Amino acid sequence: MDLLRDLEFWKHVSIPFVAGLVGWATNWVAIKMTFLPLEFRGIRPYLGWQGIIPSKAGKMAGLFAETTMFRLGTLGEIFQQMDPEAMADHITEVIEPRLDGYTDEVMFYGGHGALWRSLPSLVKGRIHSRVRQEMPALVHDLMQDIGEQIEELVDFKHMLVTELEGDKALLNRLFIESGEEEFKFIIRSGLYFGGIFGLVQLIVWVFYQGWWVLPFFGALVGYATNWIAINLIFRPLHPKKIGPWTVQGLFLKRQEEVATIWTHLVTREVVTLRQIIEAMLTGPRSETVEALIKRHIEPIADEALGGFLPAAELTVGSRLEDIRESVGDKAVEVSIEPFKHWGFTEDRAGVLEELLRERMVQLPPDEFQDLLRPCFQEDEWKLILLGGVLGLLAGLAQLIFVFGGLGSGS
Fold it and tell me: pTM for the complete prediction?
């Protein structure tokens, strides 16, 4: 009899422990299923799963652009912060040692080889020297023009959406790294709140062992722990005095810390100088960009070549217009090269990071929460419902395997 009484005691004691475990497990599963798997696994359309964020990559990337990036600054402000003058100096520094080779390539591979071979070495040397002399001013004028027109040259939202939709792991990181502490809290809180619900469940079970009590409370634990944790992250929106304590949503209290983490990631992997230039050269407005580059660079054919090439040879062999076009094509081809230099792009990223961090710290709470809130708002009901279903199954398992079947119903 003592053994049986002890066994019943431990069965009852297990109720809050199981409830805590259910709360922890359902919250852990909910977080994992928010981000994983990156691609759909199963049989489409309904028998399977894809992480909520990856499954809505295009929409989430659009929200990232509209609710966060556009609030922190326009593309024009971002580009000016990166300093077009410094970019022009860097471009000149990178391409200057290669200008002689580029000039030779334009003449040989642009279909003007016969003309170029016929020129004396002294004339070629003077042309090389003139190209080096003219290029810095042309590049500075080009970068100033780009800086003034950048928002017409780059579709900023298209750039962000294309990049993040194509790299779902990076999209996940925007949420995971900025909300790492909150996701840990959600998982831990399942254990705490589950245990509290379990104590209530234990009291009810002592006085009424209906068959539905354990499954019902299991479903309640799975459902409610998610809901409570999410609300504690974002509510209250503004600091609120309750007795001697000041409370605010956990994520909102970390605004300065999150701003530092988030802006470092964004300026190194999402909005970088190289990616902006690539978007200019390959995006939907690339033809306008190429025309702008050519308009600024092609005159070097007149300044550097026209004065040295014999008029007769230009007429009979290669027209100056053809050479000008070849110069423009070469300029477009090598435009991205200076922005592959890690040191310079890292330096520009640091400058931009400071601007974005300062502005993010100053965001009001209702705008700052939009940084993380969308990852819970998208299909949130599915995760909460899943928690309820898993809790229900855990309660049934506890009823069958711990208490040996249906309760008395009394």
Answer: 0.83
